[in-house]
Description:
Chain A contains 4 helices and 5 strands.
Amino acid sequence: MRIPILKLYNCLLVSIQWELDDQTALQFQEDLLHKIHETNASGVVIDLTSIDFIDSFIAKVLGDVISMSKLMGAKVMITGIQPAVAITLIELGISLNDVYTALDLEKGLEKLQQELGE
Amino acid sequence: MNKTIDNYIQTQREEILKKWIEKMKGKSDERVLKVVSDQVFISTSREFMDLIISNLKDSNEKYNERLHEFAEKIVKLAWPLSFVTEGIHVFSRIVFEGMKADNIITEENHLDAFYSLDHWIIPMTTEIVNIYSTTWERTVSLQKIALQELSAPLIPVFDGVSVMPLIGAIDTERAKQIMENLLNGVVKNRSEVVLIDITGVPVVDTMVAHHIIQAADAVRLVGAKCMLVGIRPEIAQTIVNLGINLNQFTTKNTLKKGMEAALEIMKKKIITVEETE
Amino acid sequence: MENQSCVLIQTEWDIVAARQLGRNVAKEVGFGTVDQARITTAISELARNIYIYAGEGQVCIEKIIKNGQAGLRIVAVDKGPGIPDIRLAMEDGYSTSGGLGAGLPGVKRLMDDFEIDSSLGSGTEIKASKWIR
Lengths: 118, 277, 133
């Protein structure tokens, strides 16, 4: 199963709707980078509202994809991280520094536009 | 043998009681004397005596019931447990020695007598200890619930701005509770800025600071900003002396200043409305 | 034991199966959403360790009761190479696989009790439990 990546103006929009297994996560990393290259997007919003846990592997894939996108000139905004997920991440010792976050997709898009506008 | 002991206690009742009270007064420390008036002490001792006689006389069922009642009563009187168990032992010693002095217990039967005495002393002690500990357990669990209810609420103040005042000492258990409340509240109220007010936290050590930093980090992950307010001089000193790094998030000394900063982030301002007559 | 169910870890997909099982049991025992996430994550970490380092092993989830308190225990067993230096493996940031190094100390923080037993050449057994608050 592949995670769909949508284009919205100069941004890419990803909503992860089901539990990520390792393969899907790696596939997503690849797909997103290709899409950034293809569309020349300057921002990415990844919505995690439906994700109810993130382990260190998925966190690493996410962290990597954020750094890689940055290298390609796209800012990544993560939205909708659930309280339970945030708590487990912190307790695991993963703080995902240098990540833009927002409460939900709407706020995320807003914030991203501000960041890009500056 | 039981019968002999029973007889002895019944006939020597007042004598034993007198000796017993005397001995126990010598044993009791100030703590006991403070909570126990002479009158209560004597009447309770008398009741205890009746109870022992009931043990020897009544049916098991009735005795157990009385024992239970008695134990609950002394728990209510707040007698220290050590004092009560001591009392039972002293009592059996008085009976034993008294019977020996009267030559009821002799060389031949003293083992038998000893066992008989033991036989009713032990279940009595067990029951009393049991009732004490269940009462304590109940108190502890009630206090735990009460403490949980005390745990920090998140208060929405303006659109997008919430405050969480922390009061009292913070341990690991409570820190987890606070973090959950904080994050769930942030998401529920859609807060963009949260002010954690530590005015009411008496001591900020490495552990507390660590928990606060974790909470702030988690708040960032869900997409909001965390500000630490209410930092008193002594807390600023400990934080720096302990080498705790709070550089990554905004801190203010008062909630008022924090609120101003929060409004600035939200691009809002409080202005005075000019009165028009 | 009827209160125990196990998942064999042989492929990456088994990691998903193990955490699914863990989440269901955690729900049954009555854990809240945050604790469910903690348990699921811990299982994921342990199952992945087995997959990466030992290649094959087993993760069991048990419902437990102690002193009237309900809880859940994860038992992760493998017959892999073992951990050469447990103390080092329990240090934050230590990793031999190029991961985030959050693994074992992270699991310890997520759970209430943590026990590890490993000997070189004969495998590793990790037990971690969480209690309902």
